Structures are given as C-alpha cells and as structure tokens.
UniProtKB/TrEMBL annotation:
Residues 66-215 form the N-acetyltransferase domain. Transmembrane segments: none annotated. InterPro entries: Acyl_CoA_acyltransferase (IPR016181), GNAT_dom (IPR000182), Trichothecene_AcTrans (IPR052523). This is N-acetyltransferase domain-containing protein. It comes from Aeromicrobium halocynthiae. It comes from the Bacteria.
Length: 218
C-alpha cells in the first residue's frame, strides 16, 4: 500500500502522516465500531432503523461485524497514525466477490439479529435497488468508507480512496459506489467518480450510483 511522506504539517504543528494498510484480524472490531458509529447518522440507516442516531449505533456496529467477517481481507483498507491510532477504514468488494445466495442465506440470522426483522426487510429492499443500478461486469465496489471524528480535516478519507484507486488503476478496472449524501458525492467527484443513476429504494433517501471509468495506461 502507498505511504505518504513521514511527516505532514497540520496548521503550525508537524505530525506524522497517516499510513494505509490492509486490515488485519485484530482490526475488525475497531473497524466495525467506526463504520457503525459513522453510518448511524447516514440517511439510509435512518430509513432502515428509524429512531435517533444514538439508538442506531449498536445495530449498525453489529451489521458491520457481519459484513467484515465475510469480506475479503485484501479488500479492506485501514488508515492509522504511526503510533497505531485507528483513523479510518474503507470496505471494498473486489471483482471476484460476486454475491453468493448460499452465503447470504447463511448470514441472514445474524443480519436479522443486528437489524431486526423490519430493518432486515427494508435493507433487502434497498440492497435490491442498489444491485439493479450497479454497473455490470468486473469492477471494484466501495461498500463503505468512514473516518474517525479525531481524524476529520486531515485528508484521511481522500488518502484511503487514493491508495485503493491507485491499485485499481494499475489493473485498468472501473470502480463504483453508492453515495448517500451531497457531501460524499462531492468527495467522490474529486476522485473521478461520476453520477450514473439514482437509487430508488426507501422513502426519505436520495442515493446516487457513481462510476469511475477504468484508467488506461499506455
């Protein structure tokens, strides 16, 4: 994985730059907690679970435990400070990670346990809408990306994206994602993603499927 220069200047203070590396087994709980805490505020999770963000944190964490347990470890990136402070995580699906019905059915009880029956049914409805708008063919798909509150303003989200996209570009493959907020769309546009289609799923949500075309090296 790409590393930045040893130090970065933030304001008047020089601090070691974050490092991006593949997720290890011991990172899984920190990654699930960070993803769950961030996405508890996401409009889609609000539509799935209702209530206020604080009530959605633990169900979201439980869901991400499931997602991370069945993810290809080579498709999950974590950002940390040199002292090991956990800063961010990017959860991707590689081209070889096509959804398998049996795997999904076996994981269903854990998802129901995380989201409840109502939340699971709404999640299935949303997931189906996403799959209908997701571009076909071999591509990398960004499932979720999250940055800790302490790391905001340090460019950690952009670093996570650039690191993985450099690998994707080296293999001349496209990348896709679902953006659920205007702020996230602006971030993804700065990294070459373009709006492809609206994801029509749950009331109160306005998601956009975005595509970054494959890079072609000479």
């Amino acid at each position: 994985m790409r590393r930045l220069d040893p130090c970065a200047t933030i304001g008047a203070v020089t601090t070691p730059a974050p490092v991006v590396r593949p997720m290890q087994t011991h990172d899984a709980e920190s990654a699930a907690r960070l993803l769950g805490g961030v996405f508890a505020h996401d409009p889609v999770f609000a539509a799935l679970l209702g209530g206020d963000p604080s009530s959605r944190v633990e169900p979201a964490v439980a869901l991400y435990r499931v997602e991370l347990s069945r993810a290809d470890p080579g498709s999950v990136d974590v950002a940390e400070d040199p002292d090991g402070t956990f800063l961010g995580v990017g959860l991707w699906q590689s081209p070889r990670e096509h959804p398998r019905l049996l795997t999904e059915l076996l994981g269903l009880p854990r998802i129901v346990g995380a989201l409840g029956l109502r939340g699971t049914l709404r999640g299935a409805r949303h997931d189906l809408a996403v799959r209908r708008t997701r571009p076909p063919g071999d591509l990398w798909y960004l499932s979720s990306i999250a940055v800790s509150d302490a790391a905001r303003g340090r460019g950690v989200g952009g670093l996570l994206l650039r690191t993985r996209l450099a690998t994707i570009d080296a293999h001349e493959l496209p990348a896709a994602l679902e953006s659920t907020t205007a702020a996230s769309r602006r971030l993804y546009e700065r990294h070459g993603f373009e709006a492809l289609a609206r994801v029509r799923s749950l009331p109160g949500t306005s998601s956009t499927m975005m595509l970054r075309p494959a890079a072609h090296t000479p």
